[in-house]
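Lay summary. Proteins are chains of building blocks that fold into shapes, and those shapes determine what they do. In this project we predict the shape from the chain. Here is one chain we studied, written as its sequence of building blocks.
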Amino acid sequence: MIEPEQLNADSHAAGLDQEALLQALRAEGEAWHSMVTERCPFLFAAMPVYISPAQLRKMYEVISAVERVVGLPGWLPAGAEKQPHSKGVFFGYDFHLNEQGVHLIEINSNAGGAFLNKLLADSQRDADLPGKTVAIENLEPAFLAMFRNEWRLERGSAPLNSIAIVDENPKQQYLYPEFVLARNMLERDGLTVYIADPVALKTREDGLYFGSEKIDMVYNRLTDFSLQQFPALNKAYQSGRAVVTPHPHAYAKYADKRNLARLTDETLLRALNADEADIATLQAGVPHTFIVNAEMETALWADRKNLFFKPHSGYGSKGTYRGMNLTRRVFAEIMQGNYVAQMLAPPGERMVRVNEAGEVSLKYDIRCYVYAGKIQLVVARLYQGQTTNMRTPGGGFALVRVVE
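And here is the predicted shape, written in a compact code that computers can read:
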């Protein structure tokens, strides 16, 4: 029996079917393929990442425990956020896997990459690789059904006609090729789809508009999770003039980094009447996290090598610091507030052959794309440096295979 660790340590064995991936990229059109290769040359990793059934099971257990806990009365103060009926598409549960176990390092409420990873997974369905890809059957219909369910939860049987994929300066975004993939998929389902900057949206009495076109739903890729920087979109969301997914309530409920501290606070969880089994699962599966305050300064500096610091509302690894790399100046800025400190849980490693000259050990994290508490797709991201960056030769989004 081949263990996942053996496969991950071998840069020669069990690699992707590169020709199949290339064909899948070109099937989206030569213009799209050229855009990916020119703008994002390290979008897809050269090698899959292999995990065990036990590791996958632990990730399921942690995700299920989180879902139950955040649904408890009192998790969010009453009236703290508008509470839509829609759930929010593409949650990303990000894990580090190592010899000590499975560790949930953060939750994202607008995780990117799902459409790209669908393409990657589909391209390798006939590849001769050990194990099985972790994905529900027929990902495209599942993704489409998810968006339509978001609409149904808010609008019932009313017809869904138009969607705007919204981000700041969308054509300048690194993952703009994914916006195009999403648009193409949604258009195949009979919808009118726009890729729009939020400043181009206008709220009128009868709804949200992009130019003269009325927008029924917004697929929100913004990193302003509260929408405060974009009054028209925020007004449309707050007044119900458009369905927005994912939305600020989902961010507040799941993805604000302070929630990691709450998920590891046994006293708080018991006060919320969380199940003892869920408390134990979270204690084992989420690195202990706490909200930074000035009284902790001496202790945090002394223990900094064992900590990772993250801003409350950070995204894409911006403003995050591994404690061992901190200068006194940056540490002083962290101590001014709006940060959490998380016990360090090192990522796993994967050997990758970058070119004919040699191989390199890359770090990886595991991302579970989740909707309504159910895992749709499990992928990895390979990288060098402090955090994931999608700019590492040999790195990028990687197929995940479970080896029995």
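What the prediction tells us: The chain has a mean pLDDT of 93.
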